[in-house]
Amino acid sequence: MNVRKILTVAEVLHTEDQPQRTCIGCRKKAARSELLRLVAEGSGSTAVLVDERRRMAGRGAWLHPSEACLALAVKRRAFGRALNGATGSTAVERRIMAGKQDAGPLQVPLVAAAKTVQPESGSEN
Fold it and tell me: Rounded to 5 degrees, what angle do the CA atoms 57, 22, 48 make?
């Protein structure tokens, strides 16, 4: 005998398959509704913008709206890879801090490119 369960509207919304996206900070998958969509500003600028309505043209990247994921994205230089050279994350920082009460300055470590030092003569002594 085939028994069908009657689901409430809330159960249907939670069990329904939602589009999954990967956060560029922590690299974990999440529902699209849980992430911020980011786009490059374009026209030669390196600024990254938050696409609140998720309708702006161009390639998008996704990020959890948390300081931890933002710090990881900056540390990994994920903005430049995901958005073709865009690196200015000021608008993203403002958006994440706006959602946080009692916001202090965001402590994001600056990561410098590692410099490789090689001896000129081939010997290290």
Answer: 40
